[in-house]
Amino acid sequence: MKITFCCTGTKAEPWLEGLRKALPDAHVDVWQPGAPQADHAVVWAPPQQFLDEQSALKGLFNIGAGVDALLRLKLPPGVQVVRLDDAGMSVQMAEYVCHAVIRHFREFDGYETDVKAGKWSYRKPRERHEFPVGVMGLGVLGERVARALRVFEFPVHGWSRTPKAIEGVSTHSGEVGFDTFLSSSRVLVNLLPLTADTQDILNRKTLGRLRPGGYLVNVARGAHLVEDDLLALLDSGHLAGATLDVFRTEPLPAAHPFWNHPKITLTPHTSARTLRDESIAQIASKIRALEAGLPIAGVVDPARGY
Ligand code: NAP
Ligand code: GLV
Q: N or C: which end of the chain has fewer CB within 10 A?
């Protein structure tokens, strides 16, 4: 069995070493133009030339959860696209989102400013029931985040394409459930995949439906958010702030107004990182299952977009 590795911006050697150890019978190599056909590929942002040449692939294993960039390319016929299915990401996402929500709710930024100014001052405790959190997307990451927020006793709403039941979470689904979901939420957490249906979904109209003093946490993709609409809603005071991990252009351009905006906290697309060892173990076990003709989790439906 041949496995080819084509991950832009990723140091290949540790991945090759791990994959060779996990699949000792396989030939694992970095893809070069003109390389022989492989059975499976481990990829991140591969060039179109790679997919055009590797036309006999059975499995295309993306070393991330989001497959939006991969699905924009022309794929080999019949290949199964497989996303990372947690592999250590959901706990990181839960940490990140809970941290962002609690930091906002408990006004820790304000306390930090006070302390830096040598001020010992108290703020009035806020009522948790006035900070319902809405989680958009209740998949591998969204469900984990919704459950983690419940631990801190925030009222939690969730929205997905198809109906879901999660203990302690008020769930809504589809277009019919969207309005109620938004108007029930004050803090909005985006964990949707980027698809034709979800691009630009965070805009003046949708964010405007959040309760006054709303707060946005975008940890999914930059193209979900209409950036000028966020700036307008922050300026008008309808939104109190935002924590953003993803941007339409990454790295965020130096002159971008988000960098120094007083109501925006930003991080460089780091909320849930790919963990190499966990990812290799998962990919290797899925390759073994596929080769044995067994079903695997995390197969993407290209028509659905995730
Ligand atoms: P997932 O398991 O595929 O879950 C996607 C969820 O979104 C599902 O609940 C799905 O509904 C829902 N959904 C999809 N289209 C929808 C629509 N049109 N309307 C309403 N709900 C819709 O994905 P995941 O693993 O949780 O990851 C989510 C995204 O997080 C990824 O696609 C990626 O972009 C992003 N991500 C970011 C980072 C980072 O570091 N910033 C790291 C990893 C992932 P159903 O359940 O009904 O299908
Ligand atoms: C990161 O953004 C991922 O999709 O895994």
A: N
